């Protein structure tokens, strides 16, 4: 019969190997090292977390200050209202400019028309002056001829009366006449003057 040790020799070997493996401190040391690393990392993270919290607090304060500076000072939509008002003012100004431009063109046209009318009037005045000059000379000649033929000298001291003298050089005679147009008709005045001449 075999000895009990020999029967279980392979199991005993396995048990011994297990015992040796469990009696080694490699795993415990490895776990302890890992645990120490975890603790070190935790301390570092805690310190870093405090730094990050401080940085976040400072950044939040800066963000609030920048938001306060960047905030639009007027009520919402006020800029758009102002833009609309300015566009209306621009439209009104454009309309006024167009009206002024139209009035300017109209004034320039009127000025040119008046210039043409002035030139025409000046030409007509020159023509009239020439005609008037010749007409004056002709009228002076006719008046002189009338005075010479009729021998009438008018008196104008009483403009409401037809008054004057008729002279006859051949007879050396001066006859006075006086007619009141209010009581004597023009026909009778003409006949009376013809009789005196």
Description of the structure:
It is found in: Nucleus; Chromosome, Centromere, Kinetochore. The chain has helices spanning 4-7, 9-23, 26-70, 78-150, 186-196, and strands at 152-155, 162-168, 173-179. The model has no long low-confidence stretch (mean pLDDT 81). The termini are far apart. It is built from 5 helices and 3 strands, in the order H-H-H-H-E-E-E-H. Among the domains are: 78-137; 151-197, no CATH class. It has a 3-stranded antiparallel sheet with strand order 1-2-3.
Largest sheet: 3 strands, antiparallel
Would you report the number of β strands?
A: 3
Number of helices: 5
Q: What overall form do the CA principal axes indicate?
A: rod-shaped
Q: What class would the helix/strand composition place it in?
A: mainly alpha
- As residue ranges, the low-confidence spans are none
Throw out a few tags for this protein.
5 helices, three-stranded antiparallel sheet, 197 residues, mainly alpha, 3 strands, rod-shaped
Summarize the structure.
The protein has 197 residues and is mainly α.
């Amino acid at each position: 019969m075999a000895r009990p040790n020999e029967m279980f020799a392979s199991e005993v070997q396995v048990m011994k190997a297990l015992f040796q493996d469990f009696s080694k401190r490699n795993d415990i040391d490895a776990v302890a090292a890992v645990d120490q690393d975890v603790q070190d990392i935790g301390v570092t993270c805690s310190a870093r977390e405090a730094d990050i919290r401080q940085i976040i607090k400072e950044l939040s304060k800066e963000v609030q200050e920048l938001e306060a500076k960047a905030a639009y000072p007027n009520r919402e939509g006020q800029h758009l209202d102002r833009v609309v008002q300015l566009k209306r003012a621009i439209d009104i100004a454009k309309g006024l400019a167009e009206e002024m431009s139209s009035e300017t063109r109209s004034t320039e046209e009127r000025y040119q028309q008046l210039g043409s009318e002035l030139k025409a009037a000046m030409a007509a005045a020159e023509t009239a002056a020439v005609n008037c000059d010749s007409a004056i000379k002709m009228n002076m000649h006719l008046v002189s001829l009338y005075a010479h033929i009729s021998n009438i000298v008018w008196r104008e001291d009483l403009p409401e009366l037809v008054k004057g003298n008729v002279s006859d050089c051949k007879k050396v005679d001066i006859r006075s006449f006086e007619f009141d147009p209010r009581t004597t008709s023009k026909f009778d005045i003409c006949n009376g003057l013809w009789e005196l001449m």
